[in-house]
């Protein structure tokens, strides 16, 4: 039996260009966004990624943006989109960030 430290989790982004590279995420976003930390999930399955946030303070669950995103179009294989990882989202508040 393997211990937890020995269990290897599949990396969705292995041999693929990850979303943060495809979208040229600024360092401030890359450091806060959960997508690079949870590589076993594609970004469209993670609640709270930067691209799912909006100006009204939504919780980062708006998957409608994923449907036309070039990352999903490239790597999503037409699969339906549903959030599978919750509660690990970005803690950065957009209006306090120095980004446009």
Largest sheet: none
**Poorly predicted runs:** 1-7, 92-100
Mean pLDDT: 79
How many distinct helices? 4
Q: What this model shows, in words?
A:
This protein has 100 residues and is mainly alpha-helical. The protein has one domain (20-100). It has helices at 19-22, 27-32, 64-67, 70-75. It starts with 18 loop residues before the first helix and ends in a 25-residue tail after the last helix. The model is unreliable at 1-7 and 92-100 (pLDDT under 50).
Q: Which characteristics define this entry?
A:
single chain, 100 residues, mainly alpha, globular, disordered N terminus, disordered C terminus
Short description:
This protein is mainly alpha-helical and 100 residues long. The chain has helices at residues 19-22, 27-32, 64-67, 70-75.
Describe the secondary structure blueprint for this structure.
Elements: H1 19-22, H2 27-32, H3 64-67, H4 70-75
